UniProtKB/TrEMBL annotation, chains A, B:
Family designation: Belongs to the aspartokinase family.
EC number(s) recorded for this UniProt protein: 2.7.2.4
Organism, as annotated: Metabacillus niabensis
Segment forming the signal sequence: none
Domain of life according to the entry: Bacteria
Molecular function via GO: aspartate kinase activity
Protein name: Aspartokinase
InterPro entries noted in UniProt: AceGlu_kinase-like_sf, ACT-like_dom_sf, ACT_Aspartokinase, ACT_dom, AKIII_YclM_N, Asp/Glu/Uridylate_kinase, Asp_kin_monofn, Asp_kinase
UniProt cross-references to PANTHER family, sorted A to Z: ASPARTATE KINASE, ASPARTOKINASE 3
Length: 453, 453
């Protein structure tokens, strides 16, 4: 049995839904279809979810929403018309959304969650109707009915463990199940949404619940690329990568989808196949627990901007018990998360995302480090890029670090930081933002172009 | 004005003292001579300080010390005889030591400090007597008389700031001052010793106090070597290195003398010249604030054994505020100091000296990390070596890292850890103990043999 999830761009129009239908019915193992809300049809289009958020916020502000409401319903209606299915379903959707908008607004975040979730929920109803219209045995199943129970955290709900046993029973249903992504219900029956990439999370939970053989995640690219295609032209596609590689790569801004969404599937050992709705015969990228090493040591290179470093030096710091712990306590007091803490003999550097900082926070932190920890020097530097070089093949592969460092040196890139030691499947380089492209290109050339096949 | 310090091996015999005399009188700038206790004359010899400790411990245990006492006095007497000076000084020394041994034993650590310090103190008296015997204007000056005031910490006294103004007045004395190293007095007049390399500390304090132009530290090697000569044969000597390089190198077991001893001289910006009593015309090694870069990027390579690593992994660790701080708190609760904390996305490694750990502590730490931090995995590995590659020339020198990593890779050395990012003048590699020699040799060949001159 396969769980198949389609993203918003795969569901944005009737034409797209026809492709989705063909994909699902072409393989009888594709039993459970998880759907997002309709996404963009063209680059300036607005996603239904964004229309819904706008609508909910206006309602909360006491404003008129007549035209916004009409726009949302029109999106569903245009799909239904394109597919030539009965417009009864549009009445159902309109009625449902109106009731939600008239619902309880005492807790605005829950109200917002309910409105947002309706995008997926109503789309699942529409798609089920379309499948039925095409003469296939298909049914809409709601998360409530299926027993997808979540924690009481609006916008960041976590699946509760009892859900999995409930969801296992979906195996017994006949025909195709069309299931809305993005939300579940708490024990009181209130709607609560997951965090971003919520439909990916739902698919992953369902795959775990029904013990699927495969979780297929349909999106709009043929595969996961080995490097950001806006930096390197026509990069190599990755046919197979491990969960761990995916996690390391997605850390540095490399994401077809949000890696945490995969946790439920990962825990159940279910492979994930990222595929393209617009080119379903392409093999896509498989994300697995273990893989054969068929390429060189490196499978992917990712980079992420927007880091800063806090350098702290103090003579004899090295002898001082508790220095590091007290330093991290100061950061914690400001609610800052840090990424890495490379250290020298009498100095230490904290690498963190600079969007957490502003001039005031920087001044306050500097002051506390100097007055409380008696540091000799505190220097904050901005605009660092972290580059991750990832691959299971790097495990005990003598020389990968040297190759990477040499490639950077030959390209004239100055390495501000190297972090290697903890993870066996990655190494990280810190460089100045201005050198990002040159650095990534040099690493790509070293490991993907120069590798003898 | 120069402060000149001589170590124990330079003062072990009359023959050595003749060299010392020649060195001092050959330069009229050499005004202040700091001396250790007599050291070893041959490899199986016993240092006077060790004889004194043995003697003091026996006294505290209520044992007879007649023969031990005689052995100590005989050491001074044999030097005096060799130098053909009046044995009056031996009477003085004998009388002084007897009085100390009969002194107050209520606080054994202070008693021990007083006995230990007598080794330097009496040697200074003997040496002053010899200088006078040679017709030179010279005087013994005691730390008490000079106002070298220290904190009340037996075996680990710290100089108090008011000492420096007191010591400045030594400039006004005529002739050569012979000053005992290793100790000062607290405000009550009790003797307290410095930590190891205590005479180096005294010399450094005096150099600062009198605002010397140079602090000459005479020992028994021609220079500081660029690498451990027991690993690499006939290594290059270092003619000049900065305080910072010295500190980074000495961290990894690389020490002609204890780098912390240099702090007072360093704070006053006074250069240090390490020279050889047995070959005083050799230029030795100068330790300075800044140096011209006359060699390649690397000035020295040091390595130190006996480290272990605690690897901790936990899925989504990266999102958890306070994880690192709580981990360091656990180590602190066990009184452990750590060296470095390289981190991956969902894992972190703590590098620390393994002599702080035993099976029980390891088990207790592992348990706390698992139960309190809910780590997925904790793995402790032993017998790591840290290798420091140091040089001011590495600052923004693109490619040094690559050269080092490539040299290690070509030698078949697996790099367990790289720590670069904080210090600009060093990089650190962690390797398995069995690969230490091969790794150090490979780095030496890369930076010292292969460098085009």
């Amino acid at each position: 049995m396969k769980v198949v999830k389609f993203g918003g761009s795969s569901l944005a129009s009737g034409e797209q839904l026809k492709k989705v239908f063909q994909i699902v019915v072409s393989d009888p193992e594709r039993k459970i279809v998880v759907v997002s809300a309709p996404g963009k049809r063209f680059s300036d289009d607005i996603k239904v979810t964004d229309l819904l958020i706008d609508c909910a916020e206006k309602v909360l502000a006491g404003e008129e929403i007549e035209s916004e409401f009409a726009t949302i319903i029109e999106r569903y209606a245009s799909i239904a018309k394109e597919l030539e299915i009965s417009l009864d379903i549009i009445d159902t959707i309109s009625h449902d959304l109106k009731a939600l908008l008239n619902g309880n607004k005492e807790k605005p975040d829950r109200f917002l969650d309910a409105i947002k979730a309706s995008g997926e929920d109503n789309n699942a109803k529409l798609i089920a109707a379309y499948f039925q219209h095409r003469g296939v045995l298909a049914q809409y199943v709601s998360p409530k009915e299926a027993g997808l129970i979540v924690s009481d955290e609006p916008g960041n709900a976590q699946v509760l463990p009892e859900s999995y046993d409930n969801l296992y029973k979906l195996r017994d249903r006949e025909g195709i199940i069309v299931f809305p992504g993005f939300f579940g219900h708490n024990k009181n029956g209130d709607v609560l949404t997951f965090s971003r990439s919520g439909s990916d999370i739902t698919g992953s939970i369902l795959a775990n619940g029904v013990k699927a053989d495969l979780y297929e995640n349909f999106t709009d690219v043929d595969a996961v690329y080995s490097v950001n295609p806006t930096i390197v032209q026509n990069p190599k596609e990755i046919s197979e990568l491990t969960y761990r590689e995916m996690r390391e790569l997605s850390y540095a801004g490399f994401s077809v989808f949000h890696d945490e969404a995969l946790i439920p599937a990962f825990r159940a050992g279910i492979p994930v196949n990222v595929k393209n709705t617009n080119n379903p015969t392409a093999p896509g990228t498989r994300i697995v627990n273990e893989r054969a090493n068929t390429n060189g040591p490196v499978i992917g290179i990712a980079s992420d901007k927007g880091f800063c470093s806090i350098y702290i030096s103090k003579y004899l710091m090295n002898r001082e018990i508790g220095f590091g712990r007290r330093l991290l306590q100061i950061l914690e007091d400001f609610g800052l998360t840090y990424e890495h803490v490379p250290s020298g003999i009498d100095d230490v550097t904290v690498i963190l995302r600079q969007n957490q900082m502003d001039k005031e926070i920087e001044a306050a932190i500097t002051k506390r480090i100097i007055t409380e920890l008696h540091a000799d020097k505190v220097i904050i530097e901005h605009n660092l890029v972290l580059i991750m070089v990832v691959g299971e093949g790097m495990r005990h592969n003598v020389g990968t670090t040297a190759r990477a460092a040499k490639a950077l040196a030959n390209a004239g890139v100055n390495i501000e930081m190297i972090n290697q030691g903890s993870s066996e499947v990655s190494m990280m380089f810190g460089v100045k933002e201005a050198q990002e492209k040159r650095a990534v290109q040099a690493l790509y050339n070293e490991f993907f172009v120069a590798v003898p096949v």
